[in-house]
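Re: that chain you flagged

S.,

Sorry for the slow reply, it's been a week of failed gels. I finally had a moment to sit down with the sequence you sent. For the record, here it is as I used it:
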Amino acid sequence: MGFFDNLIKSTDRTGNNLKINWLALTDKAQLEEIIKISIVKPVLIFKHSTRCGTSRMALKNFESDYDIPENEIVMYFLDLLEYRTLSNDISEKFKVAHQSPQVLVIKNGEVIYNDSHYSITVKAIKEVVCN
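Prediction finished late last night. Pasting the structure tokens below so you have them in one place:
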């Protein structure tokens, strides 16, 4: 099983037993789906470089702190090495400069939060999603 497969399935979180049910973001057409979903529920896109130590650590920290109930947010995962062009499409569509790693939260078709590198925190995302 590949690295990306393991990320999609995710693992139990120590202490809170929540899993991140990542949806693989692999196609530009999904961006319109994300906009539609965001009208009903916030959507998070995690852009990750599988060869970058900083990205790997940011993802690990995010996943270990993750405690947002599944019914609060829809989670998409983008493998930047496989889908770099799609990352550019995201930047253009949502008017946010590309970073790696990067998190975007979309609500009502607009980016309401974005951050990158070690500034990515579950706490900050909860503040914009759960309030």
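What I noticed first: The two ends are 38 Å apart (CA to CA).

Talk soon,
D.
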